[in-house]
Amino acid sequence: MRSLADVIVVGNGALGLSVAVEIARRAPELKVSVIGPAERARAASVAAGAMLNCFGEVTTYTGRHPVSAARFAVAREALDLWPQWLAALEEDVGGANFRAVRASWSEGTFVIMSSSSGRIAGENFAAMCAAAEEHGEPHELVAPEEVAGLSPRLGHRPLRVLHLRREGAVDGRAMVAALEQAARERRVELVPATVRALLRPSGGAVSGVELQDGRTVSAGAVVLAAGVASGALAGQVLPPGAVPPMLHGTGLAVTVKRANTGPRGPHVIRTPNRAGTCGLHVVPLAGEDEQYIGATNVITFDPAPGVYLGLAQTMMRQASEQVDEALAVSYVHRWMIGTRPIPLDCYPLIGACSIPGLLFATGTYRDGFHSSPAIARHLAALLLQDTAAEKDTPFTHFAPERMPIQTMSVPEAVDDTARHAADTMHDQGTRMPWWLDSTPLEEWARARIRTFYESLEDPVALPPEVVDPQFLDPTAIETRSVDLLRRYLRAARAHHGT
Ligand SMILES: Cc1cc2nc3c(=O)[nH]c(=O)nc-3n(C[C@H](O)[C@H](O)[C@H](O)COP(=O)(O)OP(=O)(O)OC[C@H]3O[C@@H](n4cnc5c(N)ncnc54)[C@H](O)[C@@H]3O)c2cc1C
């Protein structure tokens, strides 16, 4: 059976749905279809916080390189867009259908710099304060006692707390449901199915997709927004090495119901991004006694079978130590595992590629929920070719066909990764004897990281969090991940000619 659409969006997460809704708003005459399985197994969007953080995500890398600055520019654009994005969605679905999102919406994020934070988190906290100052973002440093819901254990009390007034969170699951409803209201067709293949007859333009059950859907344009699955789908039509591989950033989050331990905090309380992972965060949900605790992050080439128990244990211990000790006696309501789509260089894949009719809206790593309104606007403008101004935007840096973006040299990457590795060990509970600082840990990690880079023949500098977890084991040098990486780099150099 064959059906027709003008635009097919492959993937029904926050990105795919936002792009579809935005296209349908701008061009109601087009037939837009979103294809994705109803269960959304391991989708990032339904496991997300979902913090709407721009300055809260700043790290020491943000100001260091034009591409990092471009990502920050997208996040700033999204920060400005959120109030109108929510209002437009509410208008699309009607107030009653938007109640769950409104009830979960919290404004204001408190970023804590705890006495037990690692060095990297401390540096990121300083970078965040400097960025808020530089860009005139409404913020202030507040006394920890003034933050409702912040009640850490002795020994973990915050040294400093930054209040970002405009940043907050929504319930990710309620938001996906509202986006789906908005899509329906805008006459977007929602197809509960999985795409097996992109159709590209005789090597020309992409002309549609084939579904798992054999049906085909034809279209003039296909937007790839299938999260971690996007890499494999793109690989069907683009040559090896054309696009950086999509890695899996598996994360665990948990929602809890409070026992009789007083009210939960009404705002997001989080740490800065930490070595090798995201920030620890506790987010208020719609129910007065409900909270979300997130999240772990382990980046791998292949899908991870699950989440390490040890890491889950650390996350929950740290939430009750650093944010609110009453969390330890709250009741687990729901466990969620989601996979962040992470290109090898950790920058998103956005926009058109060399194959006519194929566009990318993926690879958003840890802030895809927040950035979704800005990405949706850009994709819609690109697809509908309605503005010349869209040509010169921060998004030009994220063209999908590229060598991995390198923001430092390989020796710098070795040093940075060693620092991150030592800090990760500290965050995970390593305690040095009183006569030693963390230098031996860093040296140990540096030796292994150097060996890993040497094994790549002609390496590129990778972000520390990509290298940190999977390559520290010396036996990993001959593992499948390293082999895949070597083969990818060979193909990428041959394809891009560098
Ligand atoms: C634990 C966790 C916490 C996070 N916290 C935050 C946060 O606080 N703030 C923030 O901004 N971001 C956060 N993120 C990141 C954010 O969730 C992602 O960047 C974003 O949601 C990615 O959206 P997506 O639509 O691209 O991918 P996904 O949400 O993964 O959606 C992809 C969809 O495509 C579908 N699909 C897959 N294969 C196919 C196929 N072959 N055919 C059709 N459909 C297919 C999947 O079923 C899925 O529904 C978090 C992520 C995790 C995992």
TrEMBL record:
Residues of the signal peptide: none
Pfam family, one: DAO
Domain FAD dependent oxidoreductase: 6-382
Keyword terms, alphabetized: Oxidoreductase
Domain of life: Bacteria
Database matches in InterPro entries: FAD-dep_OxRdtase, FAD/NAD-bd_sf
Protein's name in the database: FAD dependent oxidoreductase domain-containing protein
